[in-house]
Write a structure and sequence with these properties.
single chain, mainly beta, 3-stranded antiparallel β-sheet, two-stranded antiparallel ribbon, elongated
Length: 87
């Protein structure tokens, strides 16, 4: 989805949502995933990849109200990021 804007009573607010790439997959951290579901998603996206080539990380990414100076935890979304590291 990338960058976008939405209208708010105070004006236009810039937003962001990360897109999956060939080597990255973003799962919303607020959702619950079983290990079996994550493995199946990885197999579907990268059928020939060895699981030793996958790196799992968690990250808070600012997805709302971009460009404002004050930190607001509600403007950030928790993600599980799965990266494929090709050797």
């Amino acid at each position: 989805m990338g960058y976008d804007t939405r209208q708010h009573w105070g004006g236009t607010i810039k937003t962001f949502w990360p897109d999956d790439t060939d080597d990255e997959m973003y799962l919303t951290g607020g959702s619950q995933y079983s290990l079996a579901a994550i493995i199946e998603m990885c197999r579907e996206k990268w059928p020939d990849t060895d699981f030793n080539d996958l790196v799992f990380e968690s990250e808070k990414i600012q997805t709302d109200c971009l460009g404002y100076d004050l930190y607001d935890p509600c403007d950030h979304t928790d993600f599980i990021i799965i990266r494929r590291c090709r050797n």
